[in-house]
Design goal:
This protein is mostly helical. The protein has one domain. It is 79% helix and 0% strand. The chain is built from 4 helices and no strands. Helix 1 runs antiparallel to helix 2. The longest helix has 38 residues. It is elongated, with a radius of gyration of 22 Å.
């Protein structure tokens, strides 16, 4: 594979990674919106949404991790390509802009957001079941 082909593969993996995060954020927004606009307490619905979200989050986190590992492998190979004048010129410009991806940090962030999403989902269910727990507005 040429340096150009490897570079293209690197950026394709970067775009795929960005899409996984975009879909993740959209799904969280959908789950939170669904939970916010429901009026009646329904335990079965909350359990089902929680289980479906957990399944999605697990697969999405795995896809993000796998894609990030692929991207890092390509990045390592890019550094091993023999230096030619063109490769050296490109490396001088690109190396500062492509830092290593923090896979562990991404996993922890994903898990933290998953826990917050599930906590919000269940807090909304609890508030639907306990309307007296809702704060009373004193504004006139």
């Amino acid at each position: 594979m040429s340096f150009g082909d490897l570079l293209q593969q690197y950026f394709e993996r970067s775009v795929a990674l960005q899409w996984y995060w975009t879909v993740y954020v959209l799904v969280i927004g959908g789950v939170l919106g669904f939970s916010t606009f429901r009026q009646r307490p329904e335990l079965i619905t909350t359990i089902l949404v929680t289980l479906l979200y957990l399944g999605f989050a697990y697969k999405n986190a795995g896809a993000i991790e796998s894609t990030a590992e692929e991207r890092e492998a390509i990045r390592a190979v890019l550094k091993d390509v023999p230096a030619t004048p063109d490769v050296t010129r490109v490396r001088e410009k690109l190396d500062p802009t492509i830092p290593p991806y923090d896979i562990a940090g991404a996993k922890y962030f994903h898990l933290f957001c998953d826990l917050l999403t599930i906590a919000f989902l269940w807090a909304k269910e609890w508030r639907r079941r306990n309307p007296e727990a809702m704060p009373v507005s004193t504004a006139n």
